[in-house]
């Protein structure tokens, strides 16, 4: 027979297990709500450049690619520009970097978000950075490989972003010009038709370094 002491031990173990599960869940939820801010590549006090975007930004080892230790990668796979708006303060503004490189939008197109909303989100991102004296650098939404319908929408968005950046005196980097042809992302630069490979990242990084050296002097 199981005595009262054994019963209490079994009950206590169950409660402890439940508490641990609840604790783990709360930590995960906190990470989602804060944009996983605690996952950092270096001391946030030293961050001067933030690479902010979706999985395409996340896929680059930007510290190595740019050859400097003051870079933070804040890339969020699967996120739309609406998500980036929500995460801007915690993952960029609060770090007080000098420059923020923005990339995103292909997920918006993929899930059918109206372009007007994506445009509005970009205005919020750009204006929010300018308000806090952070230099925004908007990078073109990358084409996909052999996806003409997506390309039409990407072209529309990029034309808008280029014009808006000009109106605000903001830097715009056309990465598509280096990685794409008339049909979209070149086969030699993509691993799955959307995400890019190391060769593409190195070309992209060269454009960023050129801007930092020649225009931003940083």
Description:
The protein is α/β, with parallel strands linked by helices and 218 residues long. It has 2 domains: 1-33; 35-214, SGNH hydrolase (Rossmann fold, 3-Layer(aba) Sandwich). Helix content is 52%, strand content 13%. It has helices at 4-33, 55-58, 62-66, 81-91, 106-110, 115-131, 148-168, 176-179, 198-214; strands at residues 49-54, 71-76, 99-102, 135-139, 171-173, 180-181, 184-185. The protein has a 5-stranded parallel beta sheet. Strands 6-7 form a two-stranded antiparallel sheet. The chain is globular. The N and C termini lie far apart (75 Å). Mean pLDDT is 87; it is low at 7-41. InterPro entries: Ester_Hydrolysis_Enzymes (IPR051532), Lipase_GDSL_AS (IPR008265), SGNH_hydro (IPR013830), SGNH_hydro_sf (IPR036514). The chain crosses the membrane at residues 20-39. GO terms for molecular function: lipase activity. It comes from Sphingobacterium athyrii. One of its GO terms (biological process) is lipid metabolic process.
């Amino acid at each position: 027979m199981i005595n009262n002491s054994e019963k209490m031990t079994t009950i206590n173990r169950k409660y402890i297990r439940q508490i641990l599960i609840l604790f783990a869940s709360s930590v995960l939820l906190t990470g989602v709500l804060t944009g996983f801010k605690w996952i950092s590549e270096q001391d946030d006090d030293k961050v001067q450049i933030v690479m902010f975007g979706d999985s395409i930004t996340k896929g680059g080892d930007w510290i190595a690619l740019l050859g400097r230790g003051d870079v933070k990668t804040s890339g969020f796979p699967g996120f739309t520009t609406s998500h980036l708006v929500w995460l801007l303060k915690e993952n960029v503004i609060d770090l007080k970097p000098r420059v923020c490189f923005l990339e995103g939008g292909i997920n918006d197109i993929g899930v059918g978000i109206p372009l007007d909303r994506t445009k509005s989100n970009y205005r919020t991102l750009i204006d929010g950075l300018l308000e806090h004296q952070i230099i925004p650098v908007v990078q073109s939404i990358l084409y996909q490989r052999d996806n003409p319908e997506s390309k039409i929408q990407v072209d529309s968005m990029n034309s808008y972003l280029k014009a808006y950046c000009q109106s605000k005196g903001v830097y715009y980097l056309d990465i598509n010009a280096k990685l794409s042809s008339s049909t979209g992302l070149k086969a030699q630069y993509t691993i799955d038709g959307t995400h890019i490979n190391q060769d593409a990242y190195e070309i992209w990084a060269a454009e960023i370094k050129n801007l930092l050296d020649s225009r931003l002097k940083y």
